[in-house]
Specification:
Two copies of one chain form a homodimer. The first copy, chain A, is built from 13 helices and twelve strands. The first copy, chain A, has 325 residues and is an alpha/beta fold. The first copy, chain A, has three domains: 53 residues, 434 Repressor (Amino-terminal Domain) (Orthogonal Bundle), CATH 1.10.260; 127 residues, Rossmann fold (3-Layer(aba) Sandwich), CATH 3.40.50; 125 residues, Rossmann fold (3-Layer(aba) Sandwich). In chain A, the strands form two sheets. Chain A has a six-stranded parallel sheet, sandwiched between helices. The longest helix of chain A has 18 residues. The radius of gyration of chain A is 25 Å and the shape is elongated. The N and C termini of chain A lie far apart (58 Å). Chains A and B meet through helix 4, helix 5, strand 2, helix 6 and helix 12 of A and helix 4, helix 5, strand 2, helix 6 and helix 12 of B. Chain A binds a DNA duplex (16 and 16 nucleotides) through helix 2 and helix 4. Chains A, B: This is Catabolite control protein A. Chains A, B: Keywords: DNA-binding, Repressor, Transcription, Transcription regulation. Chains A, B: InterPro entries: HTH_LacI, Lambda_DNA-bd_dom_sf, Peripla_BP/Lac1_sug-bd_dom, Peripla_BP_I. Chains A, B: GO terms for molecular function: DNA-binding transcription factor activity; transcription cis-regulatory region binding.
DNA sequence: GTGAAAGCGCTAACAT
DNA sequence: ATGTTAGCGCTTTCAC
């Protein structure tokens, strides 16, 4: 098996120094055009691919952004990934994605991997557990997206996320406008998200002059294993005529349960949108996050911070849009 | 901003040579236990993370597998990614995923990126266009998954994919068993996949003693822009009482069109499964691919080839499973 | 059991 | 316009 082609091989073949090869391949203006073309052809013919690791080590920087994702099977996050990839590519960065499956220890490994690969910065959407970000990250630039780190340290980092309070308020208001008198909520297991979405829910009720009832405010487990039971609880026992699922995975679990129940008409709402909601047998209202914009904002901010590390930490809140399927 | 901590800093702090640090951190048996523990503590305290790029360059290998995906928004491929990540992690490899959005030029860039990052091997599920794999890859180990390279060169590489002929045959047979007398097919734009799925379709018809009719065998564009019109064509104009979508993206487009049409009952079938098919207003039969197994097979084979480059190229065919939602 | 020195592939001063 | 040299951070002989 032929050894890997290096710049040395190209230099030997072309009869010039390695430095000239390097210059020619990097389009340095100071190498003669004829030489450059000759060298590029030789490199091509030899099947030469520069060793990016060696390059990165020499120039002391990479063009890699690390991205930590809690659940790659979740449609919301695949859209995030795509938006991040696009924005990153446009800025000349490549992306190292790691899926943690909502496991804290995998988040720690993911971060380690990214640091070892010398990521220029990281985008974190996992933030489940007790990871000590400050200690792990050192001074690697980081932006948190969607899921936030613990309150104490959140303000040290840039954050990009949807306006949960407003989005949920608008969503619940819409359910009420459509006739719901008693809207139950199955909230998210992610703490800050849950707090904000609950707040929006309460606001909508207050504005509509409807009472709060703790009995119809329940919280899903991370794996949604209790959602089926809660769905029955709210729609049957508690006689809710409106149900809000605080994210798309919860809604999925709710939908799986509904056929078992024999229910009078009720209003259904979900934070996060899915294309296939169009196919459901009953209408559904969603708060659709501006995912592309979230991804782009995160990347732009991260790159800004890479280039200028002492920017003040900022929070970016983007508006959700109410959609009726 | 504090400079990045290197092995040199740890050596200075510990009062030993860099070589000893390296040995200690790599659990070399020849370093005294006390020394090792002392060094590991110092490294920890300093927030030292080894530079993986430098390491890779020195040992002349990486533990990175490149993965090229045509459409990260497609549920099928996110499952593939997850299976690959899991199998790779288990074998001590990390994964570099690049999404090409079905664009040939992005596939070429993706491959270049992987070669520059010195990927130990690549898994390719894109294979859309005229990429010259042999020239691009050189002797980088590669495994093709799901989408195959052009016929001429396919046999030079390992391939992992579902048994399309059998899967489609079983699927169509199921539709016929459920009462369909005239099953139309909207085939995939991916050529080899299409050929095989058409073959399975024909076989099922032959076994059932039903005639072939080219008028009800149509092909979707890559972007599915013609699927809506074809759906009407088959179900209305051609009066099919059965419709097979040859992949999940086609089925999605079909489902979006159905509400516009006012149809007598008919049988619906789809290659590829989706969880949310459960929620559809009418039953649907699918051929579910063994995705986890496909991913694991691909990774295992790739790693085998990395360790033993002159293995003969092989094809792995895995059976799909018929599911009725 | 530990240190000194070389070198992986590349680029950037500094020469010429 | 091109060559020479040094060195990025790490591991691995080869000494001791």
């Amino acid at each position: 098996m032929s050894r890997k082609i290096t710049i040395k091989d190209v230099a030997a073949e072309a009869g010039v120094s390695e430095a000239t090869i390097s210059r020619a391949l990097n389009d340095s203006p100071q190498v003669k055009k004829a030489t450059r073309q000759r060298i590029q052809k030789i490199a091509q013919d030899l099947g030469y691919h520069p060793n990016g690791l060696a390059r990165s080590i020499r120039v002391q920087k990479t063009n890699t952004l690390g991205v930590i994702i809690p659940d790659i099977l979740n449609n919301f996050f695949t859209h995030i990934i795509r938006a991040i990839e696009d924005a990153a590519a446009q800025a000349g960065y490549d992306v190292l994605i790691v899926n943690t499956d909502e496991q804290d220890d995998r988040e720690v490994s993911a971060l380690n991997l990214m640091l070892e690969k010398q990521a220029a910065g990281v985008i974190i959407t996992s933030a489940g557990g007790p990871t000590n970000y400050a200690a792990q990250l050192g001074n690697t630039p980081a932006v948190f997206v969607d899921r936030m780190p613990p309150a104490g340290i959140a303000t040290q980092y840039d954050r990009v996320l949807v306006d949960n309070v407003r989005g949920t308020q608008d969503l619940v208001t819409q359910l009420i406008d459509r006739g719901a008198q008693r809207v139950g909520i199955i909230n998210s297991a992610v703490s800050m998200t849950a707090t904000e979405r609950l707040k929006g829910y309460h606001r909508a009720l207050s504005v509509a002059g409807q009472p709060h009832d703790p009995a119809i405010e329940v919280t899903a487990r991370t794996d949604n294993s209790n959602v089926a039971q809660m769905t029955r609880q709210l729609l049957v026992n508690q006689r809710c005529d409106g149900l809000l699922a605080a994210d798309n995975t919860i809604m999925d679990a709710v939908l799986h349960k509904l056929p078992d129940l024999d229910l009078p008409p009720f209003q259904l709402g979900s934070f996060d949108d899915q294309d296939w909601f169009d196919f459901l047998p009953q209408p559904i209202v969603t708060a659709k996050q501006p995912i592309a914009q979230i991804g782009k904002t995160a990347v732009d901010r991260l790159i800004a911070r890479i280039n200028q590390p002492d920017l003040p930490a900022e929070e970016f809140r983007l508006a959700a849009k109410i959609i009726t399927h």
